[in-house]
Amino acid sequence: xxxYQRKRRFANQTRDKDLDRLSGLPDKVLLQIISLLPLxxxxxxxxxxxxxxxxxxxxxxxxxxxxxxxxKSLGNGYMNIVERFLFSRKRDVGIDKFRLKCGKxxxxxxxNGWIQYALGYHVKELDLTIxxxxxxxxxxxxxxxxxxxxLRLSMDKGSILSVPTYFRLPNLKVLHLGLMKCSDDGxxxxxxxxxxxxxxLHLRNCELSNMNKLRVCNATLKKLFLSGxxxxxxxxEIIAPNLVHFSYYYTGTKGFSLINxxxxxxxxxxxxxxxxxxxxxxxxxxxxxxxxxxxxxxYLTLYSSKPILLTPGLVxxxxxxxxxxxxxxxxxxxxxxxxxxxxCLDTLVLDFEFSGSGLESHNNGRDETEKVPxxxxxxxxxxxxxxxxxxxxxxxxxxYLLKNAKVLERFTVxxxxxKRLRTKISKEVRALSRxxxxxxVTII
Length: 444
What we know:
Elements: H1 2-23, H2 27-34, H3 39-44, E1 61-65, H4 75-88, E2 97-102, H5 108-120, E3 125-130, E4 150-155, E5 160-161, E6 174-178, E7 181-182, H6 185-193, E8 200-204, E9 213-217, E10 223-227, E11 235-239, E12 245-249, E13 255-259, E14 266-271, H7 273-276, H8 281-291, E15 297-304, E16 323-330, H9 335-340, E17 347-355, H10 374-378, E18 382-388, H11 392-404, E19 410-415, H12 419-431, E20 440-443
Parallel strand pairs: 1-2, 2-3, 3-4, 4-6, 5-7, 6-8, 8-10, 9-11, 10-12, 11-13, 12-14, 14-15, 15-16, 16-17, 17-18, 18-19, 19-20
């Protein structure tokens, strides 16, 4: 009996020491820990010990997510917990981040009240995902908050964002807009012109069917991400002299106008069926390629059976391009044309992950594609071939590169496909002759 009591006393002492070590951490560290918990659990920490009693009221990162509510019948209880928590916070504690994700059980009339609460505490980062159909009356203060640095706004597809006449977010640097529809061209113009310090803009899955032109004109913008627009009757115009990163993914449009992108460092372009299905694809693709021609790094994904993009006359000169990552799907257009127009290219990455079984060159006897690109003979030192399965055309590409890359130093091939064939493919690649004596071949 005495031995049992000693063991129990030792266990209690160990548990108390562990609790003391946790409670002894600075408030800043403890607040970072509990802010990761669901809101209901944050409130429950107040019963752990006297040390924790009022700690939850100092939380500056607030996350309200009704997906954490298991049953809809518990909705009223959850909303009451949210409001008790908000009004229990210390009044002298600001809000760094306020995240609201709702659409399952939260009543629409409470949403703007909670947003207004965050705005009243000088919120710096506002993340709103409102999946309530027809919710259009967003709190006016969102468009005039002087403390906002980051704004993420995603709404239900049926919601229409109408930007007020007076719109000004003087300190906003990052803006994400997703799953929404702007009321007209004027709303978009007011939106971007009111962000005088904007550096990063994301537009994702927005509906532009009621717009003639998506115009992004901002002198401070450095990063721009466009993806998944709905509707193809609009034009895209971008005027951003300080833009360093441009990402364009799978959107449809009837025209491009990319003006003064001379500071562009990196471009990531995914061209899929939507763009290829446009009425005047040739001029649209030409405008896109011309607009990004000053880029130093280019990630280009082509997922179509049409070789029209990389044909003579459509591809401009890329005088600054040193890194090219070319991912090919469907069939491979004349990739050598792109190399021929990139005289400073140093690193080339070819990804065959989505290549079709019928992949073949569309030479058609043109002399332009028979010439070895100058960069391949005098500049390219690193080549990586990804998702290599040893298909006939893939093997022709690898053989061509090793045969013509005169200053090549590193050649890496990452194999794909069935395991039993990899050993055979590896031997075949190593057996290929290479013109560069410095070339080191690595098979992964």
